[in-house]
Design a protein that fits this description.
Blueprint (H helix, E strand, L loop, with lengths): L1 E7 L6 E7 L7 H14 L8 E2 L2 H8 L3 H13 L3 E4 L3 E4 L13 H14 L4 H12 L6 E5 L3 H15 L4 E3 L1 H6 L7 E5 L4 H7 L4 E4 L6 H8 L6 E6 L4 H13 L4 E6 L3 H8 L4 E5 L3 H5 L6 E4 L4 H10 L12
Parallel strand pairs: 6-7, 6-8, 8-9, 10-11, 10-12, 12-13
Antiparallel strand pairs: 1-2, 3-5, 4-5
Helix pairs in contact: 1-3, 1-10, 2-3
């Protein structure tokens, strides 16, 4: 198992990152690199717009083939986390409006927005119409959680409702494709993987990303397990299970055995629970896991605390309404 520390110089503060590679755990090195970089980007350990190490530089430091790093970066780009700029490098994708946070005053914010709009090919009348529409906008009257998976949408919705103490509802991408106007006047919440498709279906919609995060306490709990331990992951959503499995195996490889089960498959996971050394359960599964009487049940939140704090401010953002909508 190799621990590699990478230092990044082109940032405002000194940032270091640990990547743990286990070459005998059965998880492809490409997937380990991608999963760990993805978590760090989602957790905010890299700033939006920050340049990541070059393919060859990272490959040398990790002692892997450069094609492996290149493939991991391509996976990150496909997931919407980074931008590969030919001849310039790999950059953490900017999250739209948050890039204006560096603007010095309102005039500069407007100038940056107009410059971007003109650069993207929009005409003066188109920009003027959009500005007038936004000036007539109001705070969101609804919050919609959007995800392709019904179960993942339900899990995200549960955490949003309890974390922010507000009424919200969920819809699938398929439902949104049939009724894009549903986002008129609403604030859409989604994982980063689906934001671009939502924007394509409902241009101009107000969208906030929900970021995933594995807490330091959970990482420490995994690393502290004796070799040969069994870790059980129970989730309401099938989307969570492979993500959790890859993450745990990237930390411990074949030193621990990971079993990932859906909450609905109660007979399966309850049989495993009796032998498990540690159980991770999401917020919709944790009560059922605790009822087994197991002494080491840890609740895993899909939406990070930092996302919830950011969303509190986002709820004050204005949202455009289509004509004919109240």
């Amino acid at each position: 198992m190799a621990v590699v520390k990478l230092s990044h110089q082109r940032v405002a503060r000194d940032t270091s990152m640990d990547i743990v590679l286990n070459r005998s755990g059965g998880v492809p090195v490409r997937d380990q690199i991608m999963a760990q970089l993805e978590l760090k980007i989602l957790a905010g350990e890299f700033a939006h717009g920050q340049r990541l190490p070059s393919v060859r530089s990272l490959a040398r430091r990790l002692k892997v083939h450069h094609n492996t790093v290149s493939a991991a970066y391509q996976d990150l780009e496909a997931a919407g986390h980074v931008e590969l700029r030919k001849g310039a490098g790999v950059f953490v994708r900017r999250a739209g409006p948050s890039a204006l946070a560096d603007a010095r005053g309102l005039d500069e914010m407007i100038r940056m927005a107009l410059h971007t709009a003109f650069h993207q090919g929009y005409t003066g009348p188109e920009i003027r119409a959009a500005v007038e529409r936004w000036l007539a906008a109001a705070p969101p009257d609804r919050v919609l959680v959007i995800d392709p998976s019904r179960e993942m949408g339900e899990l995200l919705l549960h955490e949003i409702r309890h974390g922010l103490q507000l009424a919200a509802s969920a819809m699938s991408l398929e439902e949104l494709s049939r009724d894009p106007a549903a986002l008129s006047g609403a604030l859409a919440l989604s994982l980063p993987y689906h934001v671009e498709r939502i924007r394509a279906l409902a241009p101009g919609a107000a969208i906030e990303e929900l970021t995933l995060e594995v807490s330091q306490e959970q990482r420490k709990a995994i690393l502290a397990l004796p070799t040969g331990s069994i870790v059980l992951v129970v989730s309401h959503s099938p989307t969570v299970l492979p993500f959790a499995s890859v993450f745990i195996r990237s930390l411990r490889g074949d030193e621990v055995h990971v079993e990932a089960r859906l909450l609905g498959a109660s007979r399966e996971w309850k049989r495993v629970a009796s032998a498990a050394d540690l159980i991770f359960a999401d917020s919709l599964s944790v009560e059922a896991a605790r009822r087994t009487g197991h002494r080491r049940v840890r609740e895993v939140r899909v939406v990070s605390p930092s996302s919830l704090e950011r969303l509190k401010g986002a709820l004050r953002v204005v949202t455009p309404r289509r004509k004919g909508k109240p």
